[in-house]
Amino acid sequence: MLACIEGERLKKPNKWIPCSARFVCLGNFARGTGVMQIYEVEHGEARLIKEVEKPKPIKCGTFGATSLQQRHMATGDFDGNLNIWNLEAPDVSVYSVKAHKEIVNCIDGVGGLGIGDGAPEIVTGSRDGTVKVWDPRQKDSPVANMEPVEGETKRDCWTVAFGHAFNDQDRCVCAGYDNGDIKLFDLRNMSLRWETNIKNGVCCVEFDRKDINMNKLVATSLEGKFHVFDLRTQHPTKGFASVSEKAHKSTIWQVKHLPQNRDIFMTTGGAGNLHLWKYEYPAQRSRTDSDQTEVGVAGSVNLLQNATLSTQPIASLDWSPDKQGLCVCSGFDQSVRVLIVTKLHAA
Fold first, then answer.
1. What is the DSSP string of 268-316?
2. pLDDT band at 247; cut points 50, 70, 90
3. Is there a contact between 188 and 197 (Cβ–Cβ < 8 Å)?
4. Does residue 239 come out as left (phi exceeding 0), alpha (psi in the -120 to 50 range) or beta?
5. Partners of 134 in the β-ladder
6. pLDDT over 50 (residue 5)
7. Which of 11, 180, 242, 254 could form a disulfide with 229 if both were Cys (CB 3.0 to 4.6 A apart)?
8. What job does the chain carry out (predicted)?
9. Are the C-beta atoms of residues 253 and 202 closer than 8 Å to each other?
10. pTM
């Protein structure tokens, strides 16, 4: 079910370039500078075709707010900068802003690539405790800034994700923090819609789809457990129904939903393994409780396949948006691997 191509030795996050057989790897050199590397997959090999050095190490990147014609990549770096790059001429950024006082840990985009209604926007989360939403058409200041109130402890934001962008008005951002907090911000009403704590640092959050009425959210943690929240029914006090699974014996660094099937997702583990899961819906997704209020009902999660690729953590994975089952991953062993997952239509 899994076939693998070994690539060059390099650093962390990687993203498929939409509508191409190319992907970008981001990270840093040992001398402390940043690097962007563009690879092309051809004849069963991943070939380096371009490498650009940057002043600061790059932590994260997304294509989510760009058009299919431009395919510009937004990145966050260790100095708190948000940059947007034209990969055809990546020496100078086409947009740059000092987004945070400290490292930009995480980034996501929406409104580009034909995914999600409304304006193209980028969300960044930082060690400084803030989550900010940026419109690349607006220079210097964010369109939204979610930060702790005065006197509240600032928590390190490790992960952010857009969702609920199914029309021109609605949009949500979910953020996960080092203390286990998960916060869901409603950008339409500029309010905190829901929050919970999963008792361990939140490594990754992802909606199963960005451009639909909120359906499911997966959150992964330091202790090898992930949680699937059913977002269709929110109870006033109980919040969202959820199911949790002890997937790995170590940190689950990332979760990625299959673009062609929102109920299948991959988790990447601290022991160098990948787990492929499928969510099964319950017979009824909600029920009426004793006070006649609708409450959600969680489904179940089934393991479809797992594989160990390395003795080191797999920290980054990205599915190809164009070819079902094609993905690229990289880890702490500084290797990039291109994988093909087969038989997904039968899952």
1. EETTSEEEEEEEE--S-SEEE-TTS-EEE---EEEEEEEEE--SS-EEE
2. confident
3. no
4. left
5. 122
6. no
7. 242
8. Key assembly factor specifically required for the stability of axonemal dynein heavy chains in cytoplasm.
9. no
10. 0.94
